[in-house]
Amino acid sequence: PADINPNNFPAKLWRLVNSPRVQSICWDARGEGLIIDQQLFEREVLGTGPGGDGASGAAGLFKTKSFASLTRQFNLYGFRKLGETSSAAGGGSDGGGGCPGPLHRFYSPHFLRDHPDLLVRVKRLTKANKAKLAAGLEVKSRPPTASQR
């Protein structure tokens, strides 16, 4: 959506999961959650680990090279970690898996495959934002600048 700042975490995450060039993150089979292959993500997106060349064009998208910091961002934006499994247990949008690393599953009720309109509801959960949400008030996002549109 036009009113989403393309530089905020949810917008970057949306671009990644919907990019055909990025193989380390995908929607679950129902499009209600994300599956991330940690080892592949570290190489492909964070540019770390063996062969971490960022060939997907996504390297440097986040200001961190640490998967733990990325997990913290998920938590700050209200995502829940649904678990961690090995790829042998399945994964990927086709359920096939095939990656050696641990698979992390994340969920947010406002981050769904066929509903980009819900992205405006994914908010950073600061102390002030939590208080506003608890009071039933709207939490506004910083609008994109002219150069970001």
From TrEMBL:
The alphabetical list of record keywords is: DNA-binding, Nucleus
The record ties this protein, via InterPro entries, to:
HSF_DNA-bd, WH-like_DNA-bd_sf, WH_DNA-bd_sf
- Which parts of the sequence belong to the HSF-type DNA-binding domain? 5-125
Name the domain of life.
Answer: Eukaryota
Q: Name one Pfam family in it.
A: HSF_DNA-bind
**SUPFAM superfamilies named in the record:** Winged helix' DNA-binding domain
What GO molecular functions are on record for this protein?
Answer: DNA-binding transcription factor activity; sequence-specific DNA binding
Q: Which PANTHER family match?
A: HEAT SHOCK FACTOR PROTEIN 5, HEAT SHOCK TRANSCRIPTION FACTOR
Family listed: Belongs to the HSF family.
Its recorded name reads: HSF5 protein
